[in-house]
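Quick one: examine this chain and its backbone structure tokens and tell me how the chain folds. Here goes:
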Amino acid sequence: MKKTVAVRLCIVIVVSMLISAGLSLYLQIKSAREVMNSNAELRINQVKEILEKNDAEVEKLNEDLREDYFIRAKAAAYIAQNQPGVVGDLEETRKIAALLQVDELHFFDTEGRIFAGTEPKYFNYTFESGEQMQFFLPMLDDYDLQLCQDVTPNTAESKMMQYIAVWREDHQGIVQIGMEPVRLLEAMEKNELSHIFNLMTTEEGISIFAVDLGTGKVVGTTEQWMMGKSAEDIGLDLSDSRMMNGRQSSEIIMNGERNYCVTEAMKNIMIGVSGTHDKLYRNIPANMGVVVFSLCFLAIVVIFLILRMLDKVIIQGIYRIIDGTKRIAAGDLDFRVNIDDSPEFAMLSGNLNHMVESLLETTGKLSLVFENVDIPVAVYEYNQDMKRVLATSKIGEILMMPEEELRRVLSDRNRFCEKIQEICAQPDVLEKDVYLLGPFEGQMHYVKIKSYQEDGKTLGIVQDMTEEITEKRTLERERDVDVLTALLTRRAFFRKMDALLEEPEQLKTAMLLMTDLDNLKYVNDHWGHEYGDRMLKTVARLLLNCPGPEKLAGRLSGDEFVLVIYGAQSQQELEDCLEKLNNSIQGTELAMPDGEHVNVSLSGGYVFYPEYSGTSAELVRMADEAMYVVKKSTKGNFARYQR
């Protein structure tokens, strides 16, 4: 036993150590990732703030420059209008350009052709000469229009320029100035991602990068080897829709190393911060070493102390108690345990002995009570340490077991449990905890079995319910079944129909048909009620034999019948069933004593479920309304209810 306890104790402690170590590893990894997420958030926000700030600066500078350029262009237009002589003089034109501090000055005629300016090589260029020049075409149709073009390569030399054009006040030409946007380009260069990332510093193992979502290329990074690489080259899958939903974290392989990466997609770029596992988890191995060493040391100390206490205080006494309980469990209920090595063992011995005595006394008392009271009830009891089962004397009579079989079953707890399970395998579908026995001599017996478990003990109560249930079933049958037609009575039909309506998955598509026997009064008046009853039985048989997946048929009053067909897949399936029923009715007739043959005729109305829903009474009312229409017009037909 000591060895077993030691082995199990070691297993428990080792498992606990593994769980603790695993939990510690998980928490450290989680903590490292949370730190990485926080740092990544700071870095990403830093890049976003720089971009937003630079965008604002570029926008402000662009607005200021545009205002300044329009003023210079209008000044040149004023000079050209008031001093027309300088327009054709190249030197004077260049002096004006220098005075206005513009790089190029061009004069266009009203057709949009350069005829003068500081650059003779551009003479005769028009607004049709290239995509850059076409930007100013709308001015030819609107004298009030003045345009400032964004920085664009010019048509002649593909040189980065910014052009501004205005009409002269006399509308005799257009004046255009050209500026090399040095300040604007410098400001825009500051906003380039490559420039921003060149200014950023990171720790070794940490990389910051930006990917253009349009091209899928790295357009800025703190690691030069990444520049110009595709997203796939650095381990990112841009086809994954989750990557585009705000801030995401994932494991990627970057440059042959596993990285933990945090990304955030913005308008047209994705900013990411990645850290290698070596960087992210560098402290975990040392921390885990300390944790494992501490757990091992603690486990060794705990095992040593527990085993020492077990051996000295408990194990010897337990062995002696085990020997005693083995005899009791084997069925020797006359044996008594006497161990007084310690107060606890003495108390345990006394409790064991008292338990055995109580079992014997209780069984005897219960048997005496049940034998003197005319109640078909028996009680059994056992616990997991007992080999035999204690039971009152009537249990054999209730379970219909011969005396020899009862003795054999009660002597072996496992055999008794198998017998109870065998009985419980045949439950009665209408009564809770009631099971079927038999048949014995042609009659089924009903037994109610309830058991209770507590602290390893099982107490069972067995009751013979045969007489009570048989009487109950007889009364229910007489109450629910019409004596003449064997159909459900009005009350039974509505009760069962209401129960079906609470389970629409069982009803599926259903039809409720309300019918009335057309010529019953005629038959009763001419040949008597005996033949009228025959006609009623014939109608009941036709309704019961109607094809369909599931049926419920009832007689609501003298000549009123109701039929429910349910569990169908479609209304057409039910229409087919109704047509077959109608054909059966049309071909049915009864022979009267005088030789006359009377046709069976039913008028009816029907309603579909779930096309129409409600209580059973409401559905019957709908079908009754449809039947009323038939009765008032042409009898012997079925009509569908339409609201």
